[in-house]
Amino acid sequence: LSKSSQIVSGLALITFKLFLQALEDGLKKADADPSVKAVMICGENGKFSAGADIRGFSSPKRHGVALSPIVSLIESSEKPVVAAIEGVALGGGLEVALGCHYRVAHAKARMGLPEVTIGLLPGAEGTQRLPRLIGVPAALDMITTGKHIPATEALKLGLVDEIVEENTIEAAIRLANKVIGQPLEPRRLSLKPVPKLPNMEAFLREALVKVKRQARGCLAPELCVQAVRAATERPFAEGVRRERELFGLLLSSGQAQALQYAFFAERAVRRWAAPGGASWSSAAPQPVRKAAVIGLGTMGRGIVTSLVKANIPVVALEQDLEYLNKGRKAVMLLLEREAMKMEGGAQTLDFHNPARLQFTVDFDLLCDVDLVIEAVFENMALKKEIFHKLSKICKPGALLCTNTSALNIDEIASATNRPQQVIGTHFFSPAHVMRLLEIIYGRHTSPTAIATAMQLAKALKKVGVVVGNCFGFVGNRMMFPYVQQAVFLLEEGSRPEAVDQVLEDFGFKIGPFRMSDLAGLDVGWRSRKEQGLTGPSLAAGTPARQRHGQRYSPLPDLLCEQGRFGQKTGKGWYQYERAGGRTATPDPWLHDFLSQYRDTHGIQSRFIDQEEILERCLFSLINEGFAILAEGIASGPEHLDVIYINGYGWPKHRGGPMFYASTVGLPRVLAKLQKYSEAHPDVPGLRPNAFLKKLVAVRSPPLKEWMSYLSHQSPKL
Ligand SMILES: CCCCCCCC/C=C\C=C\CC(=O)SCCNC(=O)CCNC(=O)[C@H](O)C(C)(C)COP(=O)(O)OP(=O)(O)OC[C@H]1O[C@@H](n2cnc3c(N)ncnc32)[C@H](O)[C@@H]1OP(=O)(O)O
Description:
2-enoyl-CoA Hydratase, Chain A, domain 1, 5-stranded parallel beta sheet
């Protein structure tokens, strides 16, 4: 600044090495030039920096810590350096800003150290500088969660010195001119002590316990705490050495690759493709200015809440006043809770205004909505009746969505006069919390309908994944063999708590039996009765443990017959403190019941080790994934992985089931399936899928090449 403004501008996602070199050269030039009195660093196009190119971390020529010397160079400059933060300053971008002596941010800017979300920690001295600037509790929160904080919060924390509504660069230059000649020592964060806490040791210990509990085996949050601890215990240079060591551990852990894969997979699924060549690039969505939800049960309530949160006016419809009032009460409670969470934020929830949220039993009020989401219970006849009615009442362009978790979209669409506008939108419970939206196209669904459903997912801040129509679609279809194996393991000698433990240790939020108790065993029971697998429609003389020549376990049916529906009845695979209770305790009754069951059916109980539990459950799920890919129900393994991470509690640091299979090695998955299939020839779910076999035969190519090995283009795509 002075003779002419020295602006070192950078965009982190361009040729990284060149960029770092340019930054270094610019700084050295500015330092050496006596006519330059101060330096201002900004980004281009209204963005400071999103940090390093994540793809670079997986490449052999990775640049994880190469930024540190530059941050030190900035900090040690004899001339004041001011960061002008617009848009985002994330990861390495924020670390650069922390090296600066002053930080000015635009009011709409966001800042964060999201490295933890991609399996790393801030490796350019961020874990050492941030606690010195804003204190340990706030720094630890930012570093272990990776959250982006708005500029207003950054100002409160002391992360930035000033926020401006107008031109950030001009404001930064003004500040730079003002501070010329002022001592820089107090502004060099590496020289500052970490602010003391009266109970630092206890605080860090508790923080570690908390992140470990939440991380479910993910290493990065724990190592972030260790790096911040080093800042509190060691001089700056030693803290940096520790940070570097921990960064190296994470980089080679495998978890970082999985999380980075998940980052790109989530973005890749936005580029959907459907039959006839329709795709995200050619189809445009219709606007959704008003929506309706039919059915205010658990799912409907969550969906209404989601829509209101997305600022979309909603008409909520129930079959009669009794159900309507019950549903209204529940929705209002959910919305009040959501409003409380949002208190103090920029956005408010406007749900007392009938123009934004209207409750009714009158179908005619749906005549002007742009989109309807039917969320009644899983009964084909009922759904068809509703869709028939909708096609008469709704305006011609309205999109008709069904929140089914398994039923045939084409059959539902056949009840309407506009099958091209019928689409499956499978929400996950609780619908206002879970991020996944499985979007299912039927034979006649138009590209516009798919694009509109994807746009809706985005508006609801969900991850939309487009898939084809088959029983259970992708998520539940892969879940069936997994749950089936879990139940077979009980028949053979295991217990619910043992199976759950293995899968929870693997990283699942909740094991299959706890999950089944939570969801309600009656849901599957109803479906099995409808399919004629159990109940009055089961043909007389059907063997107890066989259906259509395949192994079948009647265990879940037997529990339901005893009224054990899970949490709601206080008993299921576990016992609970009361009906509606949430604390699962192993149930001696169930253990006796399993023993008697084995005796009745002449099953020799055996000890089943953790490896077998894990492999049979996971590999059968993965095997079904290969079948789904081969049939063209999903356009790539990323789709399956995004579905499992966002809808089924699959541990993100393992990258999703298909990514996991690729890390285990396809030959091993195949060999294990072959072994288990030989031991259980009447279980089709264990029979290795032909596509898996083919991939192994062609020497297990990388996951991103799998789809090119499908010999024929699937009829679905
Ligand atoms: C002047 C300042 C100098 C700064 C120097 C920096 C030097 C850095 C050196 C070392 C640093 C090491 C540590 C790190 O920085 S690790 C990376 C930390 N950053 C992140 O984790 C940010 C990740 N990205 C996001 O959170 C979002 O993408 C966001 C930037 C907030 C933008 O969100 P949104 O507007 O919703 O857009 P998309 O998410 O859809 O992204 C658009 C496309 O950009 C791709 N993308 C985004 N960030 C990265 C990234 N860091 N690396 C590679 N690619 C990235 C994304 O995949 C989208 O592309 P596509 O649709 O093709 O997948």
